[in-house]
Amino acid sequence: MYAVVDGNNFYVSCERVFRPDLSDRPVIVLSNNDGCAIARSNEAKALGVRMGHPWHEIRHLEKEAGLVALSANFALYGDMSDRMASLVAALGHRHEVYSIDESFVDLSGIRGDMTERAHAIRARVLQWVGIPCGVGIAPTKTLAKLANYVAKTAERKPGSYPPELAQVCNLAQLSRSERDAVLESTDVGEVWGVGRKISLQLKEAGIQSVLDLARLDPATVRRRWSVVLERTVRELQGMPCIELDDQPPPKKEIACTRSFGRPVSELPDLEQAVTTFSCMAAQKLRKQQSHTAHVLVFIHTSPYRQGPQYARSITVPLHRPTSDTVPIVKAALNGLRRIYRPGYQFIKAGVMLLDLHSARLRQGELDLDPLETSDDSRERLMGVLDELNQRYGRGTVKLAGAGLQVAGEPARWAMRQERRSPAYTTCWEDMLVVRA
Q1: In a domain, 411, yes or no
Q2: 236 in the same domain as 268
Q3: Measured in whole angstroms, how far is the alpha carbon of residue 168 from the centre of its chain?
Q4: CB 324 within 8 A of CB 360
Q5: In the beta sheet, which residues pair with residue 54?
Q6: Into how many domains does the chain fold?
Q7: CA within 20 to 30 Å of 289's CA: 24, 244, 280, 324, which one?
């Protein structure tokens, strides 16, 4: 038995925790550089704001409908996600953090009423963290995801499903006829793993609802579509085919890429950006206890702007695999200088760490330079660097190559975040002050 706990309109809900004045108002959170909507409150959805809706197309709703648009504040969202996940883990004995706002929980062997238990955990998350959640419970992960969709939709759109399924939907407690009615009322495109293309193919074949898909013969589905869709059908039929991934494998590649708030043409500005991206990627590398052997760096202009176009990338091998920020930055900067061409307006750059492997697999390479600092001392230095930045905020201690910005004056290449809220939970200066 599995449960899926998902924060409702998570980014918007995080903002509302510290801004009660935003309750019951249409609110959206914008992507990097304030480009498009990546989170919408129910009120914003009612105005017709779509996911990915370009900001310049809906900006008029600020005055016409009171729409509130905020820049993404990922430091806040990440911290609120950790707080929510720590409470959700109490629902069962195994826990998989699937995304920033969603978790799977293994309920096998847990005694008692699972619906009542889920309501209690949901109430605790709402009271302690301030995030409203939807909970779906079912025998398989695919059915649990579907139950979660039902729980959230039943609350947001009264009448779409029985009211007792709102907030917490436990498909395992429903009778066969009740469950079939729920599946029949749900569009096949809402099934986890059924994308837009497959959804269209299924509907062309007369498969409109989730119940239609669940009644298909798995072997036929495999022959006509794929083994992946066959697994989905078996999961809808109550046969577990997808295990809980409570210990996800380390990433095979680590990337840090950003679009600039405005075009950049000078090499020193690009060097600052690439240095910053390399430092961030190296920190992620150390967090999963891996080393990298190759560093890829790229730059490109915007295909949507007039003028000459240029895009180039290069992969630079390291002398030996490492997680040390300094050689990674050096390799990235060497690559950048080789591919840089003056006279272009660059809009994006990025760094990728390739050929990753566990840091525990030491290369056993003899250091011929007696003056070279030992690996152990460098690892301790990087550990202190990460700890300081974790405690006092990203960029507290950094390489000089990342640039020294004057307070209140962002770097030329920095993203546009003109509407970002304070980092209430991760920055002392932004902490809320309550006055009696």
Answers
A1: no
A2: no
A3: 24
A4: no
A5: 36
A6: 3
A7: 244
Position 179 in a domain: no
What is the block-wise mean pLDDT of the chain (436 residues), using blocks of 10 residues?
94 94 94 89 93 92 94 91 93 90 92 93 95 95 96 92 94 94 94 91 93 94 92 94 78 89 90 92 91 94 88 93 92 95 93 88 51 67 82 75 64 74 82 80
Q: Closest Cα partner for 414 from 426, 403, 422, 430?
A: 403
Of 263, 299, 296, the residue nearest 414 (C-alpha): 263
Residue with tokens 């309920």: 107
User: Cα-flanking dihedrals φ and ψ of residue 303, to 5°?
Assistant: -70, -10
Using alpha carbons only, what angle is made at residue 257 by residues 256 and 261, rounded to the nearest 5 degrees?
135
Q: Are residues 130 and 41 in the same domain?
A: yes
Domain C-terminal end among 172, 207, 227: 172
CATH classification at residue 197: 1.10.150.20
Domain boundary among 211, 228, 248: 248
Q: Are residues 238 and 262 in the same domain?
A: no
Q: Return the closest-CA partner of residue 248 out of 96, 431, 383, 412.
A: 96
- Measured CA to CA, the distance from residue 203 to residue 393 in angstroms comes to 50
State whether 144 and 18 are in the same domain.
yes
Residue-by-residue DSSP string for 59-120: TTHHHHH--EEEE--HHHHHHHHHHHHHHHGGGSSEEEEEETTEEEEE-TT--S-HHHHHHH
Q: Same domain, yes or no, for 236 and 329?
A: no
